[in-house]
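Q: Sequence in, structure out?
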Amino acid sequence: MRIVVLGGSGLIGSKLVNLLRQEGQDVVSASHSSGLNTVTGEGVDAALAGAQVVVDVTNSPSFEDKAALDFFENSGRHIVAAEVEAGVTHHVALSVVGTDRLQESGYFRAKMTQERLIEASPIPYTILHSTQFFEFLGSIADEGTVGQTVRVSPALFQPIAADDVAATLATTAVGPPVNGVVEVAGPDRVSMADLLRRYLSKTGDTRRVVADSNARYYGLALNDESLTPGANPRIGPTTFDVWFSTYKPRS
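A: Exactly. Output:
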């Protein structure tokens, strides 16, 4: 089976490509470095030639409203057109748990546009909604930092290891399309503030974490349902402590 991974050089894409190759699949890794530009359409037809499955793990390089919308809208149209031409039988896309609940954000409105293009296309599909990655805990802390204080929401979330996201995508890619959304989350539902305290403590970071219900998450107000999955998500097995035991913090 020929599987094309769009965004194959990124955090999730590179892990996914390796997993699929280990399973003996015929995998094409497509990214900017290989001449792919989904926004302009450059290289898309060539990358998808002969593909049965396409896994899209690309992401907008900007979270600014118009830039994100332009990225997902233009990319989505070019990818669908190339898939139709190639006779693709399964489109898999990585998206975010809570996308439909976070529509005050221009970025998440752009993600919803991406999902609607997928749903409206003639290509059978599976959209995988993932919770936040453990790998981005440092970025979340930085976003909420003023001086030596990190103000962050006490809302619950259910973060997951990037390895588990890639493993779920690999299973999804070789399975039948569900023509709907599947959710995947980490094993533990925890307060964002509490987990960031643990993360900073483990990394030797002396910043103080303050749980603040008014703190914004990349500009968004959160509640306990914003970033948590619904009933019966797929669960990645890797706990925070197990993930951290092999994690290499930023220097």
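The chain has a mean pLDDT of 96.
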